[in-house]
Amino acid sequence: MFQEEQVVALITTARAKSGFFSTQAYTLVLTDQRLILIPALGDELGDTLKTVHEEMPLQGGDFQGALHDQFRATITFENRYLSMSVEDILAESPTYAIISPEEVRRIWVESRSERGRGGPDEDRAFLHIGIETAEGKHEFNTDGDIPSAERARTLLTTLFGSLVSPESPD
Questions:
Q1: 21 — phi, psi (to 5°)?
Q2: What gap in Å lies between CA 72 and CA 62, rounded to an integer?
Q3: What's the CA gap between 107 and 154, in Å, rounded?
Q4: Residue 113: beta bridge partners?
Q5: 26 near 16, Cβ under 8 Å?
Q6: Has residue 71 been placed in a domain?
Q7: How far are the Cα atoms of 66, 103, 105, 120, 151 from residue 137, in angstroms, in the given order?
Q8: What is the 3-state secondary structure (H, E, C) of 35-52?
Q9: Which 8-state DSSP code applies to residue 81?
Q10: Do residue 125 and residue 65 come from a single domain?
Q11: pLDDT tens digits for range 30-67
């Protein structure tokens, strides 16, 4: 009997450098057969943010409240992938990058922290995820440390096995 491909986990708000001062946000969708890199599209995320504002009480009119609302909208938007079939996810766009285990040379997941990410005088933990394939490297920094680095490695190991390591090869 054929078993349908299943979404196993998400790694959300993973940002890749896209220019000198800019980044592109991605949702990393891990299935039981491959990894799908889904770029966050401004229009779709904007629609979700509007829905969050309409359906949930705002956290306040200040800058931190706006950031909290943006974070809630991003999580709401990304979590919809947990309830979708892989076929439906891939039907959204033919441009989603797909990485199969055969293409991967190595993957690493590190926990890092950086001063100023949580506020001017605060350190904030985040994940640094690297994926090296024959075509090149994909490197992502998440907005936080959820899941933990250990949990992210465990999830990726279910698909990529011994190719997953705890630190960058550099």
A1: -120, 15
A2: 16
A3: 12
A4: 125
A5: yes
A6: yes
A7: 33, 11, 10, 31, 22
A8: EEEEECCHHHHHHHHHHH
A9: G
A10: no
A11: 999 999 999 876 545 445 445 555 555 555 555 555 55
**The domain boundary residue, chosen from 58, 77, 96:** 77
Strands 136-142, 123-133: pairing is antiparallel
State which residues form the domain around 90.
7-44+81-165
CA–centroid distance for 153 within its chain: 14
Contacts of 26 (CB under 8 A, 6+ apart): 14, 15, 16, 37, 38, 39, 40, 140
Q: How far apart are CA 12 and CA 33, in angstroms?
A: 19
The amino acid sitting at 68 is H
Our CA angle for 95, 36, 50, nearest 5°, is 75
Q: How sure is the predictor about 95, in pLDDT bands with cuts at 50, 70 and 90?
A: confident
136-142: strand order across its sheet: 97-99, 35-39, 23-31, 7-17, 136-142, 123-133, 104-115, 164-165
Which of 17, 38, 36 minimizes the C-alpha distance to 27?
38
Which uninterrupted H or E stretch holds 156?
A: helix 149-160
**DSSP state letter for 56:** S
